[in-house]
Amino acid sequence: MDIKKEAVILSSSFAVYFIVIGVVVAIFLIINILNKMHSHEVSTDSSVEIEPEWLISAVRIELKAAEGYSETAYRDGRQYAICWGHAKGIEQGETLSKSQCEVRLTMDIDNAIEDARVSVKRFDRLPVDVKWSLIEMAFVLGRTGLQRFPKMIAAINEDDFYQAANEVVNSVWYTRNPARVERIAARIRDESINRTEFIEAQQERAN
Question: Which CATH code, of 1.10.3860.10, 1.10.10.410, 1.10.530.40, 3.40.50.1010, is assigned to 54-67+98-206?
C-alpha cells in the first residue's frame, strides 16, 4: 500500500472518529436540554411545590393541638366541623374514622398552603417560620379571611416581620383567641424561635 492510500485511509478514520464523537456530543446535549425543560416544567407547576418536611410536621402537630379532635360532627359557628377542624361539606351527625380524619387534615393543610401562596406573593421566598404562621392562619381563616389582613401582607412583602406581627395582634381575631394568635404572631416576629423545643412541646400537648 503506497503512502497516498495510507494517508487517505488515515484521514477517513479520523473523519469517522470525529463524526462519531460529534454525534455522541449532540445526543448528550439534546438529552441535557430535554432534562432541563422537564425540570422547568415541574418547578413552575405550583401544585408540586414541596415545603420542608419539618414544617409540614410542625404545622400538623400545631393544628392537632389547637383544634382538638372529634370523630363526630360538632357545631363550629355557623357550620359543622369534624376531626381537627375540617368543615367542608360536613353535616350534622356525620362521623369519620381516625384514618379518614388524617386524610382530611392532609387535604386541609395542602389547601391552606395554596391559599397562603395565592394571598402572599412572596410566600415561596419567605422564612419558614413566617410560612408556618401564614399556613395556620389560612387553615383557620380560609383564603378570604387571610386576605382581610392587607397591612400584615404588605408588611411581609416588605420583609417587615415585626410590623406584620403587630398587625396580627391588632385584630378582632386576637380578642377571640389571644393565646393562639400570639403564638402565630411570635413566629412572624421572631424567626430565631427554637424549632426543636417548640415542636417537642407541641407534641406533648397533642398527646
Answer: 1.10.530.40
